[in-house]
From TrEMBL:
GO cellular component, one term: Sec62/Sec63 complex
GO molecular function, one term: RNA binding
SUPFAM superfamilies linked to this entry: Chaperone J-domain (SSF46565), E set domains (SSF81296), Sec63 N-terminal domain-like (SSF158702)
Membrane topology reported for the UniProt record: Multi-pass membrane protein
Organism domain of life: Eukaryota
Source lineage: Eukaryota, Metazoa, Ecdysozoa, Arthropoda, Hexapoda
Subcellular localization, as worded in the UniProt entry: Endoplasmic reticulum membrane
SMART domains: DnaJ, Sec63
GO biological process, any: SRP-dependent cotranslational protein targeting to membrane
Biased composition regions of type Acidic residues, renumbered to the chain: 734-759
Organism for this UniProt entry: Parnassius mnemosyne (clouded apollo)
Statement: the UniProt record of this protein carries the keyword GTP-binding: no
Protein name per Swiss-Prot or TrEMBL: J domain-containing protein
Comp. bias intervals (Basic residues): 531-543
Length: 759
């Protein structure tokens, strides 16, 4: 048996195979993902797009912001095409390789049929050797060697035996392992160049690239915000527990992303020395005399002035301050999300008694209010109707008359077509059509809340100290479903059908009108439009002791079909679980009637209750699995009409639970970024330690539109927890723990309705 040997690729065939495979592995996915394609927009969506001058100008700005996009696409195409050409060349090169002893057949080499006589073999060898001999003009040394080996394999007895046994006239060869690199790499004269290339790649280029990436990445947080900015947010939010809106805007403008020393994309111009002071004189209440660091630095004052000018929709010099405004505004949404996260972490630290002061709910809500203000380029106290195209402050007088006083977008959408067209009479037909497109595509959210205690025996009864799970179901539809009429084009077709004279078309039109009127009559006003009723002062006292502050539980979000249960419907006789089984929730009379049932039915109910516990636990585990699967959240929902925002924006939402009376946040705000049609999330918090009736609020806040926020009150009737059995193991508390508990009893996070009445 032959030995083994390692050798470099002398002929280059193995190296070409390696390069061919490596290039194919790169080219196939690169062509699929990076080949430039033109996005084909849906004609329906393109027809629904607003064509107002501000939107057209925004599209032009977005296209101009990528001047090298066509050149970049050209280079990508050339690189991919060059790679495929090289791949084809390598494939052709590999196909031309001739291996000497692969499929060695001496009869085929000599051009003879199997079983030829010795005379025929000698005659054929002599004839071909005269042609292939190296001394001849037509000679080929390689072919002559193969011809000689074929002749020996058929004439020499030992060579014939080796060929029959090993497939090689020379006998068994050594097992060779080829290295897919050419042999010139280890040649002595090329050693300096090879070592230099190794040093350049592995000792200089690779460490430099990894180090540059590392030192850049450690400067940013998960939201791609500078850590220096996050640290500044923590400092100011802790310093100002109750932060007003303008203070939050001032802190936002002081972000390190707007400082040239931290961000190389910031441009400092000589013209700023004249244009920025002139802009400051036009803006009142800017707070430029604030001496706090870094709020008093020039970059912070400039960014603050640009944000105030953006919210006031002022015109700026197009080549200088306008470019700076676009950059500052485009970075604000991510910064606001980071600011909200910072306030939320401070609240969690305050609950953990690591910081003395607890930020109020107004602080985090004012931070959230900044997002729709920045996206729409509008102050919060301005009319939400200014978010529509062509509507200015001079036109707001048309929305107020003796009969109707329109203040919100929802009220405008609920009007009949004639009334709405009468109010918008200052617009022509084309402008009115754009307004209806924008208004019809705005979000209309169906907001439902269901409260339960999952890991308890009775999931509908909240006991003191239990973990309460609030399931929030969101369903998004367009506001066009609230329209009480048809559009102008549909009206024209209806008039044509009526003029054409009755018949089937006339009946269809009447039926369509009747259906739309029925939809209008059955429409229910959403929660945020309902008038709040004054609470009765004659409520019974249910709790006289003060409550213990409760730590908020982390937010868990899952996507499942919407839930149709409502927390306010507590007097239903029966309620079905997810498995289709029924549980009784009747009054005392109903319970008396059920007591007359047989013992067998009671046993069945008890066994069904045990099965329900197991099923609830299984559902709880499934929700946890879904939450883990959905950690990589999608950030694609619906485009936002925002002509004053320099980039395309997707509509997102914040959802959280708070206590308005004590001004505290109970759950971390869940950032909903994938609300396309329906979304379900779960918010968890700890119930108060003392029994009583508590009023909490589940809030839904938009980060893209002003006036789209919703709030639904939740009545939490906390019952006294069951007594612990005597044989149940108890935890031994140290003196320090009991002291902390005694101190915590003096503070109150929740406020019952009875305590408010006593005050």
């Amino acid at each position: 048996m032959g030995g083994q040997k390692f050798e470099y690729d002398e002929s280059g065939s193995t190296f070409f195979y390696f390069v061919l495979s490596f290039l194919a592995l790169i080219l196939v996915p690169a062509t699929f993902y990076y080949w430039p394609r033109k996005r084909k927009e849906d004609p329906v969506k393109q027809a629904e797009r607003c064509q107002c001058p501000n939107c057209i100008k925004k599209q032009q700005i977005i296209e101009q912001s990528q001047p090298y996009k066509s050149l970049k696409n050209l280079f990508i195409k050339l690189a991919i095409i060059s790679g495929w050409v090289l791949l084809g060349f390598l494939a052709y090169k590999v196909s031309q390789f001739d291996y000497e002893m692969s499929n060695f057949d001496p009869y085929d080499i000599l051009g003879l049929p199997p079983g030829a006589t010795q005379a025929e073999i000698k005659r054929s060898y002599r004839k071909q050797s005269l042609i292939l001999h190296p001394d001849k003009e037509t000679g080929d040394e390689k072919a002559f060697m193969r011809l000689t080996k074929a002749y020996q394999a058929l004439t020499d007895e030992e060579a014939r035996r080796n060929w029959e046994k090993y497939g090689n006239p020379d006998g068994p060869g050594a097992m060779s392992f080829g290295i897919a690199l050419p042999s010139w790499i280890v040649e002595k004269e090329n050693s300096v160049w090879v070592l230099g290339l190794y040093a350049l790649v592995f000792m200089i280029a690779l460490p430099t690239a990894v180090g540059t990436w590392w030192y850049r990445s450690i400067r940013y947080s998960g939201e791609q915000v500078l850590l220096d900015t996050t640290q500044m947010y923590f400092y100011f939010c802790h310093k100002t527990p109750s932060m007003p809106l303008k203070r939050a805007l001032m802190i936002l403008a002081a972000s390190c992303e707007f400082d040239r020393r931290h961000n190389s994309e910031i441009i400092e111009r000589i013209t700023d020395n004249e244009e920025v002071p002139a802009l400051l004189r036009e803006l009142p209440n800017l707070g430029e005399k604030n001496k706090e660091q870094p709020l008093c630095r020039p970059y912070s004052i400039k960014a603050r002035a640009l944000l105030h000018a953006h919210l006031s929709r002022m015109r700026l010099p197009p080549d200088t301050l306008e470019c700076d405004r676009r950059y500052v505004v485009s970075r604000c949404p991510d910064l606001i999300v980071e600011m909200v996260n910072c306030v939320n972490q401070l609240i969690a630290l305050a609950y953990a008694r690591r910081i003395p002061r607890l930020p109020t709910i107004e602080t985090i809500e004012n931070c959230m209010k900044l997002s729709p203000m920045i996206v729409q380029g509008l102050w919060e106290y301005k009319s939400p109707l200014l978010q529509l195209p062509y509507i200015t402050e001079d036109h707001l007088k048309y929305f107020t008359n003796r009969k109707k006083h329109i203040k919100s977008l929802l009220q405008l959408a609920q009007l009949s077509g004639e009334d709405r067209r009468q109010i918008l009479r200052f617009l022509n037909d084309k402008q009115y059509e754009d307004v209806m497109k924008v208004l019809g595509n705005m979000p209309y959210i169906h907001f439902q809340v269901n409260t339960e205690v999952i890991d308890d025996e009775n999931s509908t009864v909240v006991t003191a100290g239990a973990i309460v799970t609030v399931t929030v179901s969101l369903r998004r539809t367009n506001m066009k479903e609230l329209f009480g009429d048809t559009t102008l084009k549909e009206k024209e077709t209806i008039k044509e059908n009526e003029e054409g004279g009755g018949g089937e078309n006339g009946e269809k039109v009447e039926n369509d009108k009747n259906e739309k009127n029925d939809k209008k009559d059955t429409f229910k006003r959403p929660v945020w439009m309902k008038q709040t009723r004054k609470q009765s002062k004659k409520s019974k006292k249910t709790a006289t002791n003060k409550q213990q502050p409760v730590k908020p539980a982390p937010v868990n979000t899952t996507v499942t079909p919407p839930v149709t249960n409502d927390t306010k419907k507590t007097k239903e006789p029966k309620k079905k679980d997810d498995d289709g089984e029924e549980s009784d929730f009747g009054s005392s009379d109903e319970s008396g009637s059920h007591s007359s049932c047989s013992e067998d039915e009671s046993r069945d109910k008890s066994s069904a209750a045990e099965d329900d516990d197991d099923d609830q636990w299984e559902r709880f585990q499934k929700r946890i699995l879904k939450r883990e699967r959905l950690e990589g959240r999608s950030k694609s929902s619906h485009p936002v009409h925002c002509p004053y925002f320099p980039q395309e924006k997707q509509e997102y939402w914040w959802c959280y639970i708070c206590d308005r009376k004590s001004r505290t946040l109970l759950t971390a705000p869940a950032h909903v970024t994938a609300l396309t049609e329906a979304h379900e999330l779960q918010l968890r918090f700890t119930a108060p330690r003392w029994p009583g009736l508590y009023t909490l609020a589940c809030c839904l806040r938009s980060d893209s539109y002003i006036g789209m926020d919703q709030q639904q009150d939740m009545k939490l009737d906390v019952k006294e927890a069951a007594a612990v059995p005597a044989d149940h193991p108890q935890w031994e508390l140290s003196d320090s723990d009991t002291d902390n508990n005694d101190q915590g009893d003096n503070e109150s996070e929740f406020t019952t309705d009875d305590e408010v009445e006593d005050e």
